[in-house]
Design a protein that fits this description.
CATH superfamily of the largest domain: Vaccinia Virus protein VP39
Strand order of the largest sheet: 4-3-2-5-6-12-11
CATH class of the largest domain: Alpha Beta
Strand content: 35-45%
Order of helices and strands: EHHEHEHEEHEEEEEHEE
Distance between the termini: 46 Å
Radius of gyration: 17 Å
Shape: globular
Helix content: 10-25%
């Protein structure tokens, strides 16, 4: 299962590689950024959180440490095996239907930029389906200059380097993005499809799924809090 790939997605390097090209061992080495603090400031203490695309638990574990109850979803059993302390669910996000709702639904890791608009809509509809009427959906989007600033690199962790090598248009507004991760003892690559969304396109995509932007939580507008739009009756 680990080496079946989605069209346009690939990854190389030691250890298990997920269908979307992510290297499990590499993600286990990456430290979490300031995102848990952003989330903590935006939602009620002790909230129930549905984390979509949890990976190895880089955000799951800090959220648990802050007193939240987390249900962590990922399609990769190798990723989920690294998660501790949360209820875990193995499923593609766009097909998830747990039959329950949560105070907060979390869609991080730029998943909203899925190259396939049908997949993107499925992701956002899963968010809408699982958020409580008085809850919120937190979405992490790419920086608006992300594709104008390539190639670029930055250090990761104590001894790693992440390099965004290229973002090549492949038609229909989609880019094929190639990233390299280098550590003293290992090297990984990740190739995936991503669709840039300006603010208008992003807000329209949320609206199409029954969500409305309430606020942008960070100065770079990458973290967004949205609320469910009440379903019309009659």
């Amino acid at each position: 299962m680990g080496d079946e790939r989605r069209d346009g997605y690939d990854g190389t390097g030691p250890g298990a590689i997920t269908p979307d090209g992510c290297a499990v061992e590499m993600w286990s080495r990456l430290p979490v950024d300031g995102s848990p603090e952003v989330i903590e400031r935006a939602v009620p203490a002790g909230a129930s959180i549905l984390e979509l695309g949890c990976g190895v638990g880089r955000m799951t574990h800090p959220l648990l440490d802050r007193g939240f109850t987390v249900t962590a979803v990922d399609e990769s059993p190798e990723m989920l095996a690294r998660v501790r302390g949360a209820c875990t669910v193995r499923s593609p996000i766009e097909h998830l239907d747990l039959g329950e709702r949560f105070d907060v639904v979390l869609l991080a890791s730029f998943l909203v930029h899925a190259g396939d608009p049908t997949v993107r809509r499925g992701l956002l509809e899963t968010c809408r389906r699982h958020v409580a009427d008085d809850g919120s959906v937190l979405v992490q989007r790419e920086g608006e200059d992300w594709y104008r600033n390539v190639p670029r690199e930055r250090p990761v962790g104590r001894d790693g380097l992440m390099r965004v090598v290229s973002a090549t248009p492949v038609g229909d507004g989609v880019n094929s993005v190639h990233i390299e991760y280098e550590f003293p003892d290992a090297r990984w690559t990740h190739t995936f499809r991503a669709r840039p969304l300006d603010t208008e396109q992003f807000e329209r995509a949320l609206a199409d799924a029954g969500l409305a932007v309430e606020s942008y939580l960070t100065d770079d507008r990458t973290w967004v809090q949205a609320r469910p739009v009440p379903h019309r009756t009659g």
